[in-house]
UniProtKB/TrEMBL annotation:
It comes from Massilia violaceinigra. Residues 22-161 form the Glycosyltransferase subfamily 4-like N-terminal domain. The keyword Nucleotidyltransferase does not apply. It comes from the Bacteria. GO terms for molecular function: glycosyltransferase activity. The keyword Phosphoprotein does not apply. This is Glycosyl transferase. InterPro entries: Glyco_trans_1, Glyco_trans_4-like_N. Keywords: Transferase. Residues 180-344 form the Glycosyl transferase family domain. One of its GO terms (biological process) is lipopolysaccharide biosynthetic process.
């Protein structure tokens, strides 16, 4: 049986996609799975996965220079059969491991060039230059890897032009994790947003929407601010007092919050890297059996309207966001019906067990002798 090392220098050790879904799925299949992290929390074993820590280096530069070097050193020490990389900054490590005859998979969580184009702290001219440089290097490196795992069909289609052994493994929820049977009568007059708190993710509009609410509902924002200056500025606004701010929640806390909420918010701005994204939290709200209030991004609009599981609004319009919240507070029977529709869609198509099958099939093919490997038809519809 293959020994597998998942490598990350930027993600937390219990990242939902990396550890909870992929590593634990592979460990249950009998693979020897090691997860290399760089968080300074030490080594441990969890759910059949050996987690090994190379230590934490603060700051983006320290992480990219020092943490990546230590990840490479630990990766060589582990001497696994397969290395599964989860951060673009680890691509050079992947090339070095390939030169040593290892099987290397790159997991594209995001479209990196599009992500760079959305960085507000970069000058527009610099964004374009960096994005095109990264795209060229990505093409150079990823055609040399044994496989690419993409987090969305959009990213899959891009990488299929670079490496034919590309499969989308979508970050869909595990239905059993969420309590979709919480009695609707016990719901709080509360809607939730779970995720990072930044201007591009619409936190400013949520604060202003809170001020405009006509119902007694409150908005709970569970996550960390990307910038202290943004938090300080928003805390001076009137709507701030109508927010619940529990900070970052663990998985149990997230599930409990969704179980008591009337609806879930995902009103991100239509930045280039969001236009073809599949927000994890949107599907988690659906899994929890609550309706979604989402940005009117075309892809999201199709998903929500085709499944009748929520409403889409202009993410720049606090009044529209507030009106959607008030609507679900005043029409709980509609909220409940849409929540059930969303849960049904998760059970039928947008779920992790279906994605896990694609991941397992990829590893089974990589385990076959090189001359016998086949690229299966994994590139069809994925929900």
């Amino acid at each position: 049986m293959l020994s597998i090392a998942h490598l990350t220098s930027a993600h937390p050790r219990r990242d939902t996609r990396i550890f909870v879904k992929q590593c634990r799925t592979l460990a249950r299949q009998g693979y020897k799975v090691t997860l290399v992290v760089a968080d300074g929390l030490g080594d441990e074993r969890d759910s059949g996965v050996h987690i090994t820590d190379v230590g934490h280096h603060p700051g983006r530069l320290g992480r990219m220079l020092l943490s990546t070097r230590r990840v490479l050193q630990r990766a060589r020490l582990i001497d696994a059969d397969v290395y599964h990389l989860h951060d673009p900054e680890l691509i050079p490590i992947g090339l070095r491991l390939k030169r040593q005859g290892k099987i290397v998979i790159f997991d594209a969580h995001e479209d990196l060039p599009l992500q760079i184009l959305s960085k507000p702290y970069l000058a527009p001219s610099l964004r374009g230059l960096l994005a095109s440089t990264c795209a060229a290097y990505e093409r150079h490196a990823c055609r040399r890897f044994d496989a690419i795992v993409a987090a969305t069909p959009f990213i899959r289609d891009k990488f299929l032009q670079i490496n034919p052994n590309t499969v989308d493994v979508n970050n869909y929820p595990m239905p059993a994790e969420f309590d979709a049977d919480a009695p609707w009568g016990e719901k709080q007059q509360e809607v939730c947003y779970v995720g990072g708190l930044s201007a591009m993710r619409g936190i400013g509009e949520l604060v202003n929407a809170a001020q405009l609410l006509q119902s007694p509902a409150r908005i709970t924002v569970a996550g960390r601010f990307s910038e202290e200056t943004l938090e300080n500025a928003l805390s001076a606004l009137p709507g701030w007092q109508r927010l619940n701010r529990p900070g970052h929640l663990d998985r149990d806390g997230v599930c409990a919050l969704m179980a008591r909420s009337l609806a879930g918010l995902v009103t991100l701005h239509p930045e280039p890297n969001y236009l073809e994204a599949l927000p994890v939290k949107m599907f988690e709200y659906m899994a929890a059996g609550i309706p979604v209030i989402a940005s009117d991004i075309p892809l999201w609009h199709v998903i929500i309207q085709s499944n009748q599981c929520g409403v889409c609004v202009d993410p720049f319009d606090p009044a529209a966001i507030a009106a959607a919240i008030d609507y679900f507070v005043r029409h709980p029977h509609i909220a409940r019906r849409m929540g059930r529709n969303g849960r049904r869609a998760i059970l039928e198509k947008y779920n992790w067990p279906g994605e896990a099958e694609k991941l397992i099939r990829l590893y089974q093919e990589l385990q076959a002798p090189a001359g016998n490997r086949r690229i299966a038809d994994r590139h069809g519809a994925s929900g």
